Structure formats: C-alpha cells, structure tokens
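User: These chains co-purify. Model them together.
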Amino acid sequence: MQSERPVPKRILTALIASLSAGVVPRTGTPYIAIGRGEEITAMLSDLERVSEGGGSVRFLIGRYGSGKSFLMQLIRGYALERGFVCADADLSPERRLYGTSGTGLATYRELIKNMATKSSPDGGGLTQILAKLIFDISSELRAIGLDEGGDGWNAAFGNALRERLRSLESFVGGYDFVSVITHYYAAVLGDDDRTASACLRWLRGEYSGRTEARDDLGFRVSGIIGDAEWYDCVKLWAELVSGLGYRGLVLFIDECVNLYKITHRIARENNYEKILSIFNDTLQGRAPHLGIVFGGTPQFLEDRRRGLFSYEALHSRLNDSRYEAAGFRNLSGPVIRLTRLSDDELLALLLRVTTLYGMYTGREPRITPEERLEFLNTALSRTGASGLITPREMLRDYMTLLAILDGNPGVSYRDVAGRLSPEGGNPGDEAEKEESQGEVSGEKGKFDPADIDF
Amino acid sequence: MTAVDTHDMKSAYDVGPGKSAADGGLPHEPVEIEIPVPERLASAGSSPAQVMPTSVPPASGASFPLPPASYASREGSGIPRSASDATGTARVPAGEPLPPRSASGPDHPRMPGFGKFLGSYEPGLPLVKKVSVYAWHTTYNYYDAFLSAAEKLSGVTSEEAEYRPFFSYMPQYSQLDRDQLAYYLKIRDGIASGETPRADYGYILLLIYELINLGGRRREDGEYYVSPTEALGMLVDIWKGYRGDNPRLDDQLTEWICDFCLIHRLAPPLARMGSVMADVIRRARLREFYLDPMSGGDFFVDYLLYFVSGYDFRKSRFASADAETLRFYTEHMRGMLCEVLKKAGADTSGSLTRRTAVRDAYIGALCHPSVKRKITVEYLSYSASVETKMLLSNTIKYAENRLRQSFGVRSKLSHGKLPDAAAAAVDAYFDEKLPSAGKHREAPPEDDYESKYDRPYAPADVGSAARIEESSWAVTDILTSAFADGPVSAGHRAAREESTAADGARNTVPVEREELPAGQTEASGEKAAAAGNQNEASVELKDLPSGQAEASGEQNVAAGKQNSAADGETARAVIDFVAAAAAGDRAAQKRAADAAGMLPDALAEKINAAAYDITGDVLLYFAGQMWRVIDEYEADAVRTAGLIAKGDEGNAK
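Assistant: Joint model of the two components:
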C-alpha cells in the first residue's frame, strides 16, 4: 500500500535551491531531517515547557558542519508552525550578548528584525504581532456588542488594552514598555504614522539617547533599550506574545564561538555572565514563555581557558555528570552534543535528497543505490575528509551530480564520476580504471620507464 | 659580556694565618686575608686578587689602603679622607672598635654626623668593594651609665632565677629590679650556651644592646668583654630564636648585624643565618652586603627577580590567576634564571654600577657614642645598572612568553632584543622542563573533549541507510504535522485535504503505509478531532492555543450568532484581499481589511496562517507598502483564497 507525502511547491523549490548552494535551508528542513531523533525529541520537549509557561535554555554544541544550524532551523520551523514566535540571530564581532559600545544591543536589534511568526516565517513579524493585539481587543469589544467607531469604543479599547498589558508593568522596564505600546496603538488608531513609527523604533532599540527618544516620541520615557536592558526587554516580549495567544518566544542564537574569540578577558567574561543570567532566569522560572537555544562549537563550551567552562559558575552548571562521563547519554541536561552523522545516515540523507529532487523535477533521478554508495565512499575517501567534510559540501556536490545527470540524458554516473576522479577513471574500481586508461592511451597504458619524462 | 668564572666562593672569608675568626675574632697580628674574587666582579673595582691587602699592624697602627683619589673624586660622593692621614691608611687593628673621634671636633664638618676618619678596608665581599668607617660626631655623651653597667655585668652569671616579666621600649639595666636582673643574666647565659629561654621583648633588646656595645670592646687587660665573632653569633641566635614571637627583630637585626659586621670587618654569617635570609633579602637596605652572586642560590635569584628586574612576573594576569599557577611560575622563573646564570653567565658584572651608601650604624638601638659609627660603603649595584636591569627584564619577559606558550596563551609580552646566549639558555631550560612549550610545535595536542564529538567508524550499508531514511519520515511527520494537534480549524483541515488531493499529485513521495507510526497517525487524528470540536466554539480567535480558546469559549458562543454574519464578511474579505494583493491594488486591500474590521496586517496574518494550515506555506509577503502574493503561488492564489474562505465559512457553520 502506498501513501503520498506532499511537499509544498515553494518549500520544495527553496529546499532544492538551498541544498544546491550549500546553505542551510530556511524552510523545508523537516524533509531532510535524517537521524537526530533523540535530539529533536529533547528540543520539542523544551518547546512544550515554554508553551506551558516555563522557560528553557539549550546549548547545541558540535563541530563545524555537524548540523547545529540545521537543527536550529528545524526546531525554528516547527516552533513557528506550533504558534511560537521565533527570533534568531548570529553572533559576530559586532553582535555580542554584552558590550559597552552597542554590541549587545545590536544582537537585540537583529533578534527583533528577525522576529517571525507562523504567518511571517521570514522575519519582520513585529508589526503583525502588535496588529494582532488590536484585532484581539477589537474582537472582544465587538463580542460584547460595542460598535467599532461608536460611542465609548475608544475608551473601552483603551481600558481593554491597559488591562491586557497590566501584567507587564511588574517586569523590569515594564512601565516604559507598556507606555510605548499604548501610545503606539493610540497612534495607529489615530492615524499618527510619525508617532507609531517612533514607538516601533523605540521597541527595536534604535534610540541612542533618552532625549532623542523623548523628542521623537512626544511623550516621556524613563529610559531606552540599551546594552544592559535588552535582555529584560526580551522577557517582556515573551510575556507579551504569550498574552497575545502565541505559545511563547523562542530565541535562536548561533555562532556563539564569537564569544570564545573575544580576546579581552573581562569582555568575554561579561558575556558569559549574561549567559549565566539567562541560564538562571529561564531555568528558575523568572522568564516565563521564553526559550533560548545557543549554538556553538566545542571550543566555545569546553575550552577551560576561554570557553564557557573557563567561567566556573557555568562550568559547574553545564559540565557532564559523572554518569555521562561514563558513556551514558543524557539529553535532559542543558547541553546537547552533536556528533557527526554516521556513514549510514549520510547515505540515507542522499537517498532522501534523491527523492526530493525527483519530486522537484518530476522525473526519476538516474542514479542507482550502488552508485549513491560509491559517491559517498568517494567523497569520504578524499584526503582529510573524515575530519573536514560536512554534509553541506557533500550535498552540494551531490546536487550538482543529480543536475548533470538530469540535464544530460546521455551521460551516466560513471561518466561524471570518472571526470571528477584525478586519475581520469573511477577511483573505486581499479580494474575498470586500468581498462579505461588502456582505451584512451593505447600502449601507453603499460608501464615503461623510458616513457617517463623528467 | 663574557662568561663568569664560577669558582668556589665559599671560602671567601677564610681568615689567614694567625688567630682565626673561630677563635674569637679577627687577629691582633697583622695578617693577610685571602679573598678569592671572581675576575669579572673584581675588575669592577679591585684587582682579582685574591688577597685582601689589609696588612694590619698591631694596635699602634694598622694601615688600610684607601681608594684611589681619582676614584673618590670621580664618584663625587664627598666622602672625606682624614686630613691627618696623609698616607691614606688608617691605624686601627682588625676586630677593634674604632676609636672615638678626636677632641678637636669632626674631621669633615661639611658632612653632618661624620666624625674622625677611623680607617677603611676592602672587605673582599663579591659586591661590597670598600668600607670606610668614621667616628660618630656628637658633642654629648649618652649612655655612659649603661656602658659602665654593661662592663660591670660582663662575666656575671645567675644560676637561680625565676621568670619575671619586663618591658621597655628602650631597656636599660637601671630599669631592672633585682629579680629581673637575675633573670636577664640567666637568659644571657642560656643564649650563650645555645638555648632559647623564655624572654620578653625588653630582655631581648637589652641583650642585643649589650652585645652591640660590648662586642669587640676590650677590657683594660686587653681581653674582649665579648669577642666580635661571639657577639655576632649570639645576635644571630637571638634573631633566629625569638623572631617568631617578635617579628620586629627582622627589621632591626637585619640592619644592626650589617652594621656590626661592617664595623668589625666580619663576613655576613650567611650559613648561620639560614632560614632568615629570605627575609633579609626582602628587608635589608644594603642587600648587596648579604648577596653572593656566584652561589647562584635562591636568595640571589630572588634578588634579581624581585629587586632588579623592571618587570615583576608575579603581577602578570596569567601568573596571578591562582596560587598553584603562581607557584608554577615562580619555580620555573627561578630555575630558568639559575640556568641562564650558569650558561650565559652572571656576566652582568662588567656593567654593574659602582655606588656609595652612607650608613648611620645601629639606628634605633641603644648605642654609646664611642661605639656608634658613620659608615660609607662602596658596592656594585645590579639594580642601579640600567643595562643589567633591561637585560633581566627582557630575559624574564622572554621566559614568561615561553610559559604562556605552555598554557596555550597566544598573547605575548613585547620585549627588547635578548642576547643569543641568554635566549638559547632560556630555550634550553624550557625545552627540557616543559617540552610541550616548544616554540614550533607541529600541532597542538587534541583536547580531551574532542573525543565527545567523534563517532566510531562503520562503513555505509545500502540496506541500513534505507531503513534509516524510512524511519526518518516519522521525524518529518512530527515536524510537519504541527497542525495535527494545533489550533487548526475543522474547515481549514477539510480545505487542506481538498488542496492536497488537487495539488499533491505532482509533489508527492511514495511511502509505504507500514512505515508510518500507526499510533501517531491515530493520535493525530484524535487530536485533530478535538481541535475541530474546540474550534466550533471558537469564532474569531481560532489561532489561540487551546487553553486560551477555552477561556474565551463561553463568551464566543454567546456572541456566535452575531459573528456568523461577520465571518461571512470575513470570507469575502479574504478573497478580495488576496485578489488585491495579486493585482497590486493597495487601496482595494485596505477596503477589504476594513470590510473585515481588521488592520491589513492582521488580515494578512490570518490569511497566511490559514494558508499554512492548508498548503504548508504562507501565501502573502509584505513588500514594503502592501501585501503581495508570493510568486510561486500567483497561479493558485485565488483558489487558495477560496479554500481559506471556505474554511472560514465551514468554521462559522
């Protein structure tokens, strides 16, 4: 009995394009999820916890190319579908968790810019989230019989809005946050685009000073979002979006190795202290509906001189228990270590990609399972490949191979693989190689010292 | 620089023929004292010789060679020479307290405190080159009574005495009662015999004062009250015996013993001082008196590390990370410097600076004017030599860089050029002691944690890979069937099935039904049914999570009839909105949103969420000014909008 698995057209197109380019697909990642079942289950349980009002923090640690970013995108896509608000940012020398020259705030700005919902999966969901609040309140008011634009509508709307946001005022920085959002709605309902824009600018952390913010906003605020305040503001966003009917806010912070690369010890430790603060907040219930996933390399976590483990408070929290050290795996801890995919899993991935490519082109790819295995062995047998090759490199080559085979009906895998081999033949088949050499070069295929030209 | 000859210096203070120091002091007869001096050190001021050219005549007149006049004037120290000593020699026998100043007044009124020049000598110490002693210039006689009492009590013993407390800041015999005096004498006898009887600080100071005043002083019959050597030995014993309870002794005796030795021409009792030497190097004003560069011992190395070098490695942020690291640093810095002194040579002597120090003897001690002295000391200084200081600083920085390498720290201290011999000696030391700290390691050793990210190798197998691929569809299903138990309306579910039937023919993956986890499918179905029932009660807030939707359920049911009509309008608005988006008509889009009673953003979000439920992807994207249909879906936009509207109507029913 056969079943059919539909893949949306745009997603399939984007997926094939991303794989061909060697980048992690932003959509469609579930269709190429091979292995990692335990890790995915652990991450999904985190989302459940966030959905139920808890907090979570995870460290996805793996070498370059081990699939950290892929797994993050996978979970992000899942979370979006499930009604979470997601925001992601890659750290860099200009974007840190803490910095005195706006580097911490730059991360916040990036997160807000990339804030995504189910209906805006590519980011830019800030205005939609705020619009949803208006829609919700309007619906409530209509439900109790009030006419939009009628007498008492504005007063009732204002009261309902304040009631919705009241819980936020108890958070650090909550008063300003609520004040700005309230003014934003007043501006939207009053068609005051300038004030609405200024409010959004404040919420995005784009003001450099209070005076500038006050002049622009037209009302008083006691502060702006800066390097020291952005994490408090993230907690406010988490509370707000959960109040709007979303299941929670999930942040994906990748390339944390950039914190490890900070040369100045004090600056590095300040960033680690911010991670410690996030860790404690989320796991002690002080950051409801907030989940954070950090992605980094083993050095970022385990280097005792410059990594997270150099900071004793984090080392004691993130270090393996002695039972894990004895070889047992525990995914309930905050750290998920990603080992490289096994050869079987890589071959399974090639099989899946072959299937998806067939769906994309509508034609059966002209490659046999044995040829796929040969391709994998060839890729893995390249010098240094065991430690350096990543699925993305291999997939890129494989997609190229499939495209060549698809675009050239007269060409077989052997022809293409033979061209790729430096010896001019199939590296996996010595006999065939010799025969091929003999055909091409005739008598020169036989070894004669006199033929060697020094 | 040349290498230093490291011949034995231990006998530097061996006393020549005649009465040995061990016999109770320096000889009365003229003697020649052999002091082997390393060439390099000696070249700085004295001849390498070996002989302390001190031919000391009997009391009638010992002669001390004076420094060349040119040297004295070159140094500009202002050290005066006796006007009465035209030959440049003093006439004081070795071991004798130098005589009091002449009655005619100070010989050098220009220098306050300088009395009559009593003589000078070359002690033959490695770093101290010349000592000149002057009487103490004063017009008053202090402590005559004390000195007289001390002389009278010399040789008196007290066998039976009980402990009696005694304290005085400036103890004298006159302050003791009979019992205290008896106990004091008992203490004195005990210390002389090598014991450490219980003693208050007052008793200790009094005994020290007695030794300072009577040490080397002669009776009328020519015998010593206490020979200088014996007095020096007792001073050291007192120091070692009582410093634990009286830490002030460290500062006091460091200076007083130095003065005593300089005045009585005694070598520093380094061996006898033993453990106190570490504190001496730290506290002494004239450290060079106690130092022996050729010994290469820890004291000299510490002196170079902490008092000569311009760079203190202990303040390095890497060294001071914790106590263990600091110990590691200290151990290797000492070892390294010893190695450098051996191999490259303590060949800094050629560039050592000759300096002169002026000392007032026995500062803070009770001291009779006839005993107190003014002393000038000419010595070779490491710390005053800029060249030596720089060389040491560079060596230590270079060594720290090697230590940092051993920790894997890349940052390096910058330093001036190091002589090849010194750099080679440092490298040789660390290559032997810390091989991993080599400058050109092939590759850093892989950290232990790397193994956690490895996986044992197993060759790929086609069958195994196929099974993995099949089972992975279960994960894919979990991740893509989000709406199975999510807030998806029943109408949209039906629309999705319709869409799948129409659109999925092309983009499908043939999969065996048996591969799907049956339980999961059933569970998903139940959840979907539950979600559908729940959403029958939900009207507008259908995208809320279940809990919230339930909370607002009653309210929504009450308003259900009113909103049914509104849903009909919303369904039409959805189609109009998508059509406007496809046509690029912003005004029409606004009209459609108004008709639905929503902001354009809110309506677009609603459409996208519904489209996601139906097709697995959003339909609209925001193009700056308005919402547009995604290019790939333009052909199917109206049909999808119809399905969304149909879903909405289904929900309303």
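Chain B has a mean pLDDT of 69.
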